[in-house]
Amino acid sequence: MEEYQVTLKIAAYLLGYPDEDWRKNFSEYRAAVEEIKTPQIKDAFKDLFDYIEKLGTKDYETLYVRSFDFSQNTNLYLTTHDRTDFGKQAQELHEYKSLFLENNFDLQNELPDYLPAILELAATVPAQNSKKILDMAKSKIKLLRDRFIEAKLAHAFLLDAVLITEENLEVNRT
After folding, report:
1. At what angle do helices 3-14 and 156-173 cross, to 10 degrees?
2. Rounded CA gap, 122 and 99, in Å?
3. pTM score, whole prediction
4. Which tens digit of pLDDT belongs to each residue from 132-148?
5. How far, rounded to the nearest angstrom, does the alpha carbon of residue 54 sit from its chain's CA centroid?
6. Hey, where are the domains in the chain?
7. Cα separations in angstroms, 131 against 34, 137, 142, 147, 169
8. How many CB atoms lie within 10 A of CB 25?
């Protein structure tokens, strides 16, 4: 697996809901961090895994729900953050849905602007397609990153890793 794929899979995992399956896979994803060669990304992931472990299961789940489920500013649905035009939001949702369908990936139980699903999709496709997906979401990811910083969420560093990965795909294309 290429580094961009490992990075995006781990990022998608870390932004996923910390249910029982998530907790079962914690050690596996933590070990996968060792496959990453980019120091800034590797360190950010290690620090976030340490932070989650230090918080403990219950406190992390509470933080997750409070931060991503009950906060309009930091939820993980990309089209909701600058929602002023519902027609524009519907168009963006359609564009995200098209990305999934173009890559033979359909979402059954999630909206197509859900960041973990977008990252998972970008991790499963060739680099050129991944670049296209990340480019489409880049401005929204930057906005979400800024909101994570304002909310003092450690997950901001995770979004830095995604943005670095997107930039590295740009460098590798030329």
Report:
1. 160
2. 10
3. 0.91
4. 999 999 999 999 999 99
5. 21
6. 3-173
7. 23, 10, 15, 23, 6
8. 13
